[in-house]
Amino acid sequence: MSDTTTNQWAGQLQLLLVEDDLDLATAVIDYLDLEDIQCDHAANGLSGLTLIELNRYDVVLLDLNLPKMSGLQVCEQLRAQGIDTPVLMLTARDTLDDKLTGFAKGADDYLVKPFAMEELIVRTRVLALRRSGQVKRLAVADLELNLAQHQAFRAGSALKLSPTALKILEVLMRASPNPVSRDKLMQAVWGDDQPDSNSLKVHIFNLRKQLDKDAGLKLLHTVTGKGFAIKELAE
Question: Residue 43 and residue 22: Cα distance in Å, rounded?
Fold first, then answer.
């Protein structure tokens, strides 16, 4: 394997794997080959970013911990350049904080090591069909958030949400079905310039009123001791 490109075949998926574990990289590329999926390889973040800039891939499989440039830095850089290739982050970390950080930097999905090759294939094919890079649409049950249009819909009907409420909804939907604590939610929405805690309470109240007012299925839940969650069933 080398940091070189291969010709794209019509109708065939073209991936880039950025992974410094050569044994794992070899196993992944060999399995992808059996599935008739072409895959280039880079062993460090800097080489990976260069290949992404030079080529059009269907999906990038990006390790989190890389030499020369971390996976998060690679993801942030390619999004800053407007590159919309979907990114599947490969990581040994399985905490909500890590996932939220990855999504904030531009990742589309996470796969925790060790993973089954079959799951890698399924997630890769789903992302390739999406062809949006940074996710433009989030959905939970009949709730949809169109990030490009800055508009949310419930059962096909547009919701009247403020920009702050839309940001809160985005953070919760990206974490779904996991809860997000009040502190993490405020940090994600307002950063270091945070209002008093009552502001979040008011925004959550208004968001819940818009989201669940006429719906039989409630989606915005307060999870005692953990924060708030968007999911189909309360705990």
Answer: 8
180 DSSP assignment: B
Helix axes 182-190, 96-105, angle to 10 degrees: 10
Q: What is the pTM of this model?
A: 0.53
pLDDT digits (tens, 9 = 90+) for 66-106: 999 998 899 888 887 767 788 898 888 766 776 777 777 77
d(CA 151, CA 148): 8
pLDDT per residue over 142-199, tens digit each?
999 887 788 999 988 899 988 889 889 988 887 788 888 888 888 888 877 777 768 8
Contacts 24+ apart (CB under 8 A), 196-203: 200/168, 203/162, 203/164, 203/165, 203/168
Answer whether 145's CB lies under 8 Å from 166's CB.
Answer: yes
Q: Record the tokens describing residue 199, joined without a space.
A: 């502001």
